[in-house]
Design goal:
The complex is a heterotrimer of chains A (about 300), B (about 280) and C (about 325). With about 300 residues, chain A is an all-alpha fold. Chain A has 10 helices and no strands. Chain A starts with 7 loop residues before the first helix and ends with a helix. The chains are: A mainly alpha (about 300), B alpha/beta (about 280), C mainly alpha (about 325).
């Protein structure tokens, strides 16, 4: 073997240099690595700690307010003589049920059918729609409230009403449901669809009989996800629902909602007791939202397991 | 493998010349009773052989025989895997790679690796890729980096192709060139041993040929250990062959270690003969 | 944009022909036509809403542009009572709060994402990231409330005076401190955008192939060097997308900011004092305002849409690119 074809010396020199430098810098490099990996761990712990902290705040400040009376009475105004007389949140609970319920009724069918289109068709129009849904989900939600205010409350003289809030929330929910149902429908194996088509079923039948039933857990994920987002929204309801202090089941009248009643407690800052009682409302609200969110995650996990 | 291997004689060597054992020269690495297990399940059992200095040693055997697993033990890549355990003794010169106080980071500077699929860092330029190892190890002097880059790229037979566009992204190279870039990246830190894990399995025939040609040059600079399941390749490039086979319990076992020409022409073990004649999957 | 509606019907009729597998199917065109008509018709409702939304906002902002002109962007005095509509304090506040949120949340979020992918034992990975993502599910009014009741007193009493002290009354933190401040709003926003950054960066980091990691380790890099020089740069497109989407969220956040920012419409160089943002101002003054004020708020809404929509689209483009790259 001819070792002389390559100059061996510079290579051996460099090998010695690399190895000695590596050894010399090793302690520093290892220390930096350990410290920085520690920092990474700490920031993750910090993120987790924030959620724990918020849950702790909600429970430690909120539990004392939760009682049958709190949940079944309308709010009352605390006075100087009776500063703790804050009443309950029945109006907000009823309002949230009615407003969110109607928003679900409006948004879920539209969102799922439009999501089906996004998944099933492929042309310029559909691509434009897809981009539009992305923009809509990123828009500040207060603008939806402003829009519905101008159209329904002012132009069509509906006045402040629960239904106006439902419409705003439905507009908020539709693009979220569209995106999520597109994903759900796309994940249905194409072999299933082709099997249906090869049996001579029409495209519509295949969708109704095969695609939608198979995608149901995913569609449920979509609906729950959008609902969990809508239930907690304050901004789009701000100027729409009238934020009344009395309970009303009639969506064409003024109503309240859980997030709105929290916001109201801070509007003028008149009563510290009212602000403290908002912890109770927040506890109820966050419990509902987290359950919806966890529900959508479970449905998603379920549909993923089914697919395998 | 379609049929038996014919004439596996290395270039320029007459077949009836006496076979010289590469292990008669200096030895780079000693493996003694090396076993690798994952979660207490044995993957490689009791491998013992010597790796001759400045030669090419090939690990051959069918899939599942533990070639790659064994190779990755040699620069402590198994340290990344939870539940992986390496037993026995692996000596590099006279340092025990798994000895007390040995740190994998420092070992990997001495034992480099080239992987199955070319894995240049896509966000770095060609130059930055080559000198990345030097920088990681704390060398930042411009002239040292430049010299090392040129030398490593020449060593990987890539210098003429890239000397005018060292600032270009690594992803602008073809697959074969990317693999040679990875070889240059490994060479730049001047390791004592270079591990190559089926380095041509993701490449086209022409790129494969280029890299095989490179091997005979490489061994002047560094001791090479290559895993391949291409028998012709092992026959063409290696000086020493280690044949592994999966045992009854699924763990890879060493069947025969011999100079390449001997292993391919007159193996001692009948199983080796079966394998090189294509009688195993 | 309005003509988009007109294209719906013809497309619906033509759609079955577009389908690749149409040729070998039984003749069921009639029922297929009804199917596509339903799909396109329903989607048309969404299109009508979006068009109406955009038209309403632009249409109602016309009087404001006529009245204030470019002063709506460059004017420094926001005083609806005296018909002065200078939007600069609002725009500056919007950018300031979002910038603070990103400066704090980006390093925290990315390092946390690195942790999830590369440091945490694999069976803890999913629970931990789901847990962090739940932060995004907490309603913003609750963040606002935590800001008012818990954080504002701390800012007023401890954080801001301390910042003034250690920075030597640096202009960013100078003046009479107010708990309800731009800095508090930015801090609350930090918490709100963290889950976005963590979740999306985690996805981007997870797509960096493991052989890149092994490649770096095999030339003698430490774990941190590998993460810092190879893994994070390898995920940079996706991480940029994550940060951009977080920026869009921070720019448009309304309620939490409105509750903690103090509603000060005067330009101030100090972040330790109150401020306002476009979205917060809309929330706080929409009701009971004069027609002209409302029109100006619409005009600001249009600016806000332009900012958030373009930032949002940019972020999504980047994420799409990152995902495509991952598949190659």
């Amino acid at each position: 073997m001819s070792v002389s074809t390559l100059p061996a010396d510079p290579i051996l020199e460099r090998r010695a240099l690399v190895q000695s430098t590596a050894r010399r810098s090793f302690a520093r490099r290892t220390l930096v690595s350990k410290v920085m990996l520690g920092v990474c761990g700490v920031t993750l712990a910090f993120c987790v700690a924030i959620l724990v902290w918020i849950i702790y705040l909600l429970i430690s400040n909120g539990v004392q307010w939760i009682s049958v009376n709190y949940l079944t009475q309308d709010p009352s105004t605390p006075t100087v003589l009776q500063p703790n007389n804050v009443g309950g949140i029945k109006n907000a609970i009823v309002g949230s049920i009615v407003i969110d319920g109607l928003a679900i009724v409006m948004a879920v069918p539209i969102g799922i059918v439009a999501g089906l289109l996004l998944a099933e068709a492929d042309n310029a129009f559909v691509n434009a729609i897809r981009t539009t849904t992305e923009v809509m989900t990123g828009l500040p939600s207060i603008l939806l409230g402003v829009f519905v205010y101008e159209i329904l409350v002012i132009k069509y003289k509906l006045g402040f009403s629960g239904i106006a809030g439902s419409v705003a929330l439905a507009i908020l929910m539709i693009p979220i449901i569209m995106k999520a149902s597109e994903v759900a429908v796309r994940s249905v194996p194409s072999s299933l669809k082709e099997a249906g088509l090869s049996l001579g079923l029409s495209k519509g039948r295949v969708s109704r009989r095969i695609v939608v039933p198979t995608a149901t857990p995913g569609l449920l994920t979509a609906a729950l996800l959008a609902t969990s987002r809508a239930v907690g929204e304050t901004a789009p309801l701000l100027w729409l629902i009238g934020a009344t202090y009395t309970t009303s089941w009639d969506p064409f009248k003024e109503q309240s909602a859980l997030p709105i009643s929290i916001y109201q407690a801070f509007l003028n800052g008149i009563s510290p007791q009212l602000q403290q009682s908002a912890w109770g409302t927040a506890l109820v609200l966050v419990t509902v939202v987290l359950f919806l969110n966890l529900g959508s995650r479970l449905a998603a996990a379920y549909s993923q397991r089914e697919r395998r | 493998m379609d049929s038996a291997i014919t004439v596996p004689a290395p270039d320029g060597v007459l077949t009836d010349e006496p076979i010289e054992d590469p292990r008669s020269g200096p030895i780079a690495m000693h493996l003694r009773d090396v076993s690798v297990s994952f979660n207490n399940r044995l993957a490689v059992r009791d491998v013992t052989f010597e790796v001759p200095d400045n030669k090419v040693t090939a690990l051959i055997g069918p899939s599942g025989s533990g070639k790659t697993t064994l190779l990755r033990a040699l620069n402590r890549l198994h340290d990344l895997t939870k539940g992986a355990k390496v037993q026995g003794e692996i000596l590099l010169g006279d340092t025990d790679l798994y000895g007390k106080g040995m740190h994998p980071t420092l070992i990997r500077t001495r034992v480099g690796m080239v992987f199955q699929r070319p894995n240049p860092f896509p966000t770095m330029s060609i130059y930055d890729n080559v000198v990345s190892g030097l920088r990681f190890n704390g060398i930042h002097k411009k002239n040292v980096l430049n010299e090392a880059a040129e030398s490593a790229l020449i060593g990987a037979a890539l210098w003429d192709r890239v000397k005018d566009r060292l600032k270009a992204h690594a992803s602008t190279l073809s697959g074969g060139e990317q693999q040679r870039l990875c070889i240059a990246r490994a060479l730049a830190v001047e390791p004592e041993v270079l591990l190559m894990d089926e380095p041509t399995s993701a490449l086209d025939p022409i790129s494969t040929q280029r890299i095989e040609e490179l091997m005979s040059e490489l061994k002047n600079r560094v001791t090479v250990i290559i895993v391949t399941h291409n028998m012709q390749q092992a026959a063409r490039v290696s000086d020493l062959c280690v044949f592994l086979l999966m045992g009854q319990d699924g763990a890879g076992e060493q069947i025969e270690v011999a100079p390449t020409r001997k292993l391919f022409t007159e193996p001692d073990d009948p199983r080796t003969l079966d394998y090189i004649h294509g009688r195993f999957g | 944009m309005p003509e988009a509606i007109d294209t719906v019907e013809p497309t619906a009729a033509a759609a079955p022909k577009d389908r690749a597998s149409g040729a070998r199917r039984a003749p069921v065109a009639r029922s297929d036509r009804a199917y596509w008509a339903t799909l396109y018709g329903t989607t048309a409702i969404f299109v009508v809403i979006c068009v109406a939304f955009l038209v309403t906002l632009i249409w109602n902002s016309v009087p404001a542009w006529r009245f204030s002109g470019l002063g709506l962007i460059t004017g420094t005095k926001w005083d609806p009572q005296n018909s002065s509509y200078g939007g600069l304090p609002l725009i500056v506040g919007t950018l300031e709060t979002a910038a603070i949120a990103l400066v704090l949340a980006v390093p925290i979020g990315i390092t946390a994402a690195v942790s999830i992918v590369h440091l945490v034992p694999s069976r803890l990975r999913t629970p931990l990231s789901s847990f962090v993502e739940l932060l995004a599910a907490v309603p913003s009014v609750v963040y606002g409330m935590v800001g008012v009741l818990v954080m504002a007193p701390k800012f007023q009493g401890d954080v801001l005076p301390w910042l003034q002290h250690v920075t030597g009354n640096f202009f960013l933190f100078s003046g009479t401190v107010s708990g309800y401040s731009v800095l508090l709003a930015g801090t609350v926003l930090t918490i709100m955008v963290l889950p976005t950054i963590v979740a999306l960066s985690r996805d981007a980091i997870a797509t960096v192939p493991h052989d890149q990691v092994e490649g770096a380790l095999s030339v003698g890099a430490t774990k941190w060097q590998t993460l810092r020089k190879v893994v994070v740069p390898g995920a940079r497109v996706g991480i940029t997308g994550a940060v951009t989407l977080a920026a869009a969220r921070a720019l448009g956040e309304t309620i939490a900011v409105a509750m903690v920012i103090g509603g000060n419409v005067h330009l101030s160089r100090s972040l330790a004092q109150g401020g306002t943002t476009i979205a917060a101002q809309i929330a706080q003054s929409f009701d009971g305002a004069t027609a002209l004020t409302i029109s100006n708020l619409f005009a600001l809404s249009v600016i806000l849409i332009a900012i958030t929509a373009s930032v949002n689209l940019l972020g999504r483009r980047l994420l799409h690119r990152a995902n495509r790259g991952a598949m190659l």
